[in-house]
Design a protein that fits this description.
Length: 119
Amino acid sequence: MSNTSHFASSPPEAEALGLLEAIKFAIGRDMTSVIFETDCKLTVDTVNSPVVPHNEIGDIITIGKNLLSVHNSYVVRHIRRQANRVAYTLARASLSHPIPYIFYYVPAYVYSLIINELA
């Protein structure tokens, strides 16, 4: 899924919002055993920490943590930016979609990246 936002936010805040939206999307589709990956280590560390900062990012993370606590099979993991070519490619593709867009199939250019990463 891709979406655009028309307000200014810091990169960590945008990552936290993206993660929250992904969690809501997975819950709304009754998905199980979901692994959420992000290259923002701050977001992953904050989600997996018992201490949450008292700021806007902390507020977003708290909502996400509450949703994750109800879905024990959901996991949030860090992936190095260099290894996150699939996410980068999808993010670039989302620029051509001015409204929320759900990829119901894996585009050929992304499928080859996934196969290469699994090899």
